[in-house]
Amino acid sequence: KVDNATSEARSFKEIPRPGKWEFMRAFLPGGEFHDVSATDFATVMRKRYGDIYIMPGLFGRPDWVTTFNTKDIEMVFRNEGIWPARETFASFTYFRTDVRPDVYGENLGLVASQSEAWGKMRSAMNPIFMQPKGLKAYYQPLSHINNEFIERIKETRDGNLEVDENFMEEINRLIFESLCLVAFDREMGLIRRNRDNPEALALFQTSKDILQYIFELDIQPSMWRIVSTPAYRKMVRGLNESLDVAQKLLRDTQDSLKKRQEAGEEINKNSMLQRMMEVDPKMATIMSLDILFAGVDATSILLSAVLLCLAKNPEKQAKLREELLKIMPTKETPLNDENMKEMPYLRAVIKEALRYYPNGLGHLRTCPKDVTLSGYNVPRGAQVLVASNVLLSEPSYYPQPEKFLPERWLRDPQSGKKTPINSFSYLPFGFGPRMCIGKRLVDLQMETSVAKLIRNFQVEFNYDASKPYKSLITMQAAIPFRFKFSDLD
After folding, report:
1. pTM for the full model?
2. What angle do CA 200, 124, 105 make, to 5 degrees?
3. Is the pLDDT reported for residue 266 higher than 80?
4. Which long-range contacts (CB under 8 A, 24 or more apart) does 252-256 make?
5. Are 254 and 277 spatial neighbours (Cβ–Cβ below 8 Å)?
């Protein structure tokens, strides 16, 4: 049982907070938080104000109650109801409601919709995205895409077997290609075969840039609601181009499918795109775009983080490879639903990388009713940022947090027990009805890519990696990822 707000709680007005104009000045050039990562900013604020404080809203954005307390985090999620609400990114939502209502109408997509509209769409999409059976068909094409990526690495290495400083772009292309399998039932060829494909590049660029635009327009102080700013105009242009390309690709895919059916070819009836089209073609268009916008940047960062953790911890890389060699005796051994079940250390490596390099601060929720957080009465409608990711580096939750230890997620060989972990301190994909719908897809992508890369190469990183990322809404690369990839037998 979770207690709601009580009369003994202190008032909302008593929650510590900086002044609005003091806060705004801190983000301007020369200010304390100008060009500072979101994680560093949140850590400074926590030291200054404690485990709960208010991040003031500016230029139309509401205040955010920010909490680092796992009891508060549980309280927020346990009281969110069947249709969890969260503040949407206003600039992105405005594009769909006011700039292109001809396409989106009342269906704003899972990212931007709320209440019953969100609930209906999520209920329709859950069987497609959250059930493993639909993903089985993607092992073979995903493996092919990763083989292309492996060849690209071999083509671009220098004499020291190192890739160049733009390798993050190559990872972005790999993840984009992988997600396009689901979004459009096709490969785009951006890894090797058709790197300058203009339609694919338009989609690719916006999927990379969208979070930067949202950070500038909706997180940092911005006047886009009052006057059309350069960042706002760039975002609108990119979203319009992406929408045009997505609609054309889906039309082409459906025309091709019809011709193949008429020719008597066997069609993959478990295709996630085809299942989405059966539900609602317009919804399929919106979901295909959202898969790219939400997935390319975050999943690319995760793959780079896994590779960096393994490169800096060669004994863990060797342990993972030992597991892989049992399942993949040759580099060509096909991956499938059955043999991937036998890779617990692979999954522990990915899980620990998510802890070691957490992406973003946490999750936003709108309180559907009054709740008590850290002894303060937080009213219905308040926006709450549960900053769970900051807890991932705290020794009280994760002993030896500075060490990369995939073993913390596995059962102890002697006792057979797992180390107890507070479930509200580890929420990389969220919690409850509104948790990330793409989690299983990310799992499949990551497990396939990491397995293929570590089976093919010894990975090293011979440069400083003390601060490899900076945080905006999510993390961005802060250094060149010049990995060394040495061939294995």
Report:
1. 0.93
2. 65
3. no
4. 253/184, 253/185, 253/186
5. yes
